[in-house]
């Protein structure tokens, strides 16, 4: 018999109104409850990990986030009764995140962060430390190449010199970390596109292809809106003027690509 990958009671599917099954996610407002906040420029809304963990994990399972940043995935996983491990390059960011995650801790669940480069991190440290064979979900939210420079560290994907370098760095992270994803389980990439010198660079689709090349099966392409990000909130008029002048469009969406191993 196929093992269940979530705790949803499908026989009561009419009651599962808070579980999204459409490929367009229009999220009017970010969840800013408790330890969640939008202070880390480039963090995602908690509703993204919430929806994914509800559908693709069970209570007590392990979630991995190799670009854990301010810990949004870890906070959400903990609230939902899942164990969670983050990997984050910047020590200060990782430490601050783990403090916020632990400020909500009410149970014996594991919520931990390793400060390291996800491309080269010895992934067995996770399985050895927590005495597990694998993890049941991975969420990848890499820098959108150089749109936001997260640090001066040359190992930071946002400092990749060329598009090809960025994609090869992303590939290394996927290769290294997807090795611990349980067979038959799911992972997701959250990413947006960018413009360079008036040319659209479809980062999302390039990263999607990297995942496929690494042997993961594409299961869904979700388009999610975004409204007032911290960076752009005061610049709406300027962006609109630029878009009109240059015949371009202002990004109001990003992608969530879902894969099965
Ligand atoms: C888009 S942010 C992730 C934000 C996260 N989802 C959140 O909600 O806070 C990307 C993160 O990846 C980190 N990063 C960049 N290169 C990395 C690498 N080689 N290994 C681990 N983390 C890396 C950055 O420092 C940044 O915090």
Please summarize what this structure is.
This protein is an alpha/beta fold and 261 residues long. The chain has helices spanning 47-56, 72-79, 91-103, 124-130, 163-178, 203-213, 236-246; strands spanning 24-25, 62-65, 83-88, 111-115, 135-140, 181-191, 194-196, 199-201, 217-225, 253-260. It has one domain (45-260): Rossmann fold (3-Layer(aba) Sandwich).
Low-confidence stretches: none
**Arithmetic mean of pLDDT:** 95
Helix-strand pattern, N to C?
A: EHEHEHEHEHEEEHEHE
> Main beta sheet, described?
8 strands, mixed
CATH superfamily annotation? Vaccinia Virus protein VP39
Share in β-strands: 15-25%
User: Helical residue percent?
Assistant: 25-40%
Q: Which CATH architecture?
A: 3-Layer(aba) Sandwich
**End-to-end C-alpha gap:** 18 Å
| CATH T-level topology | Rossmann fold
CATH class: Alpha Beta
Word description of this protein:
- The chain has 261 residues and is of the alpha/beta class.
- The chain has one domain: Vaccinia Virus protein VP39 (Rossmann fold), CATH 3.40.50.
- Helix content is 29%, strand content 22%.
- It is built from seven helices and ten strands.
- The chain has helices spanning 47-56, 72-79, 91-103, 124-130, 163-178, 203-213, 236-246; strands spanning 24-25, 62-65, 83-88, 111-115, 135-140, 181-191, 194-196, 199-201, 217-225, 253-260.
- The longest helix has 16 residues, at 163-178.
- The site of S-adenosylmethionine (SAM) has 24 residues, from strand 3.
């Amino acid at each position: 018999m196929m093992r269940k990958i979530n705790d949803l009671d499908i026989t009561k599917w009419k009651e599962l109104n808070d579980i999204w099954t459409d490929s367009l996610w229009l999220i009017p407002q970010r969840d800013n409850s408790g330890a969640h906040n939008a202070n880390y420029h480039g963090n995602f809304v908690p509703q993204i990990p919430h929806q994914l963990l509800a559908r693709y994990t069970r209570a007590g399972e392990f979630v991995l986030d190799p670009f854990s940043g301010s810990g949004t995935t870890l906070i959400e996983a903990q609230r939902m009764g899942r164990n969670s491990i983050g990997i984050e390059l910047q020590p200060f960011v990782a430490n601050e995140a783990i403090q916020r995650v632990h400020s909500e801790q009410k149970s014996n669940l594991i919520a931990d962060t390793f400060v390291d480069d996800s491309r080269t991190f010895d992934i067995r440290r996770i399985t050895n430390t927590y005495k597990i064979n694998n993890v049941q979900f991975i969420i990848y939210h890499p820098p959108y190449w150089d749109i936001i420079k997260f640090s001066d560290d040359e190992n930071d994907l946002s400092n990749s010199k060329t598009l090809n370098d960025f994609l090869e760095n992303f590939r290394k992270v996927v290769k290294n970390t997807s090795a611990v994803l349980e067979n038959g389980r799911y992972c997701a990439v959250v990413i947006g596109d960018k413009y360079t010198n008036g040319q659209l660079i479809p980062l999302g689709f390039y990263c999607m292809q990297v995942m496929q090349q690494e042997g993961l099966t594409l299961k869904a392409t979700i388009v999610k809106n975004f409204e007032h990000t911290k960076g752009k909130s005061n610049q709406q008029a300027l962006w609109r003027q630029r878009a009109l002048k240059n015949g371009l469009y202002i990004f109001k969406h990003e992608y969530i690509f879902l894969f099965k191993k």
